[in-house]
Amino acid sequence: MAALHGVRVLDFSTLLPGPFATLLMAEAGAEVIKIERPAGGDDMRAYEPQLEVGGASMGLPFALLNRGKRSLALDLKSPQAADILRPLLEQADVVVEQFRPGVMARLGLDWESLQRINPRLILCSITGYGQRGPKSLVAAHDLNYLADTGLLSLVADGTGSPVLPPALLADIGGGAYPAVINVLLALRQRDATGTGVHLDVSMSDNLFPLEFFALAQGWSGQGWPRANEGLTTGASPRYAVYRCADGRFLAAAPLEQKFWDNLCAAIELPERWRDDRRDPAGTRAAVAACIAHRTSAEWAARFVGLDVCCNVVASVEEASRDPHFVARGLFERRVAAGQTALPALPVPIDATVRAPAVLAAAPPLGEFDPAQRQGR
């Protein structure tokens, strides 16, 4: 049986943090009902690329993030909203929302009101800066949270400008994952106490654990790190990206001495550069010169069977077809959007606690009818 079988979730969130969090819950067996505005629904529905679903368009990013959920189209400001929501709230275990602080109260859905309806309910509020504090009402996105927490300052390009991250770290690492962790802990706590809690998930707060190296350096009294000065942010030749003769790149991460020794031998690095403590910049330039003499394919062939922690930087297309990931079944599950079935988004839910459905649909807007829903 899936780990969250029987758990019912009302999802008021849009775009990425909340929807990804409730996707993980749905994949673990929870029933997730997504509350969307009647005009257009979740903004992610309009994102490209688009699919045709029942005569309407649906963004594929939306389909990937909302597999296996239901959709209730509801104007939360309408006089009828409270009557429609009340029986759903009475039967729910978890509510997920990511409005700015105060919005749920204006809708009559604040923590105190929800507790009166259902004392066992767990309310998970995901925001950029938390429910309280000087920045709690500031409008911001992922990049802003990275900037505010110092994470964006740690890596810069040749001009000294911070480098755009390749992923939405705050939304996923600071929002969705902590939300699921806290919901699971709250469900466990409710098993013991019988009462729910209000979870305050701040995406910016939750970025600080990602910079533990930088915090350790600063708190040690040895000075705060600047761009490209950390072990894993550009200071070491043992953690770097090198260009090959064919223009492709190698990702080299032989941090431990045994892996470094193996890589030095494999690329035939001159002996004088192998002790990278003496002149890290010189060693890095020497490694770059060695790597530049061969193509990525030649290096990949040379590294086979060697513990060098070095590999070719793959494209997303190549990664999705990598025999290793295919063999692990990462892309076996499917998401149905109308007549289209595509690989589902891989999620970090182990098969032993995951719902069995190999094919599950992304919901058309408003397909869920609460009048036909059975109670517990």
Compute the number of structural domains. Answer: 2
**Low-pLDDT residue intervals, each spanning 5 or more residues:** none
Helix percentage range: 25-40%
Taking strands numbered 1, 2, ... along the chain, how are they ordered across the largest sheet?
5-2-1-6-7-8
Compute the number of helices: 13
Q: What is the molecular shape?
A: globular
The share of residues in extended strands comes to 15-25%
Q: Count the beta strands.
A: 14
CATH architecture of the largest domain: 3-Layer(aba) Sandwich
Which class of secondary structure composition applies to the elements? Answer: alpha/beta
Instruction: Using the coordinates above, name the CATH class of the largest domain.
Output: Alpha Beta
In CATH terms, the superfamily of the largest domain is Crotonobetainyl-coa:carnitine coa-transferase, domain 1
What is the mean pLDDT? 96
Radius of gyration: 24 Å
Fold blueprint:
Elements: E1 8-11, H1 17-27, E2 31-36, E3 50-53, E4 56-59, H2 60-65, E5 70-73, H3 81-91, E6 94-97, H4 103-106, H5 111-117, E7 122-127, H6 142-148, H7 169-193, E8 198-202, H8 212-219, E9 240-243, E10 249-252, H9 257-267, H10 280-291, H11 296-303, E11 310-312, H12 316-320, H13 323-327, E12 334-337, E13 340-343, E14 359-361
Helix pairs in contact: 1-7
Would you kindly provide a written description of the structure presented here, covering whatever features stand out?
The chain has a six-stranded parallel β-sheet with strand order 5-2-1-6-7-8, with helices on both faces. Strand 1, helix 1 and strand 2 (31-36) form a beta-alpha-beta unit. Helix content is 32%, strand content 16%. It has 376 residues and is α/β, with parallel strands linked by helices. It has helices at residues 17-27, 60-65, 81-91, 103-106, 111-117, 142-148, 169-193, 212-219, 257-267, 280-291, 296-303, 316-320, 323-327; strands at residues 8-11, 31-36, 50-53, 56-59, 70-73, 94-97, 122-127, 198-202, 240-243, 249-252, 310-312, 334-337, 340-343, 359-361. The relative contact order is 0.14. It has two domains: 8-203 and 330-372, Crotonobetainyl-coa:carnitine coa-transferase, domain 1 (Rossmann fold, 3-Layer(aba) Sandwich), CATH 3.40.50.10540; 240-320, formyl-coa transferase, domain 3. The two termini are 18 Å apart.
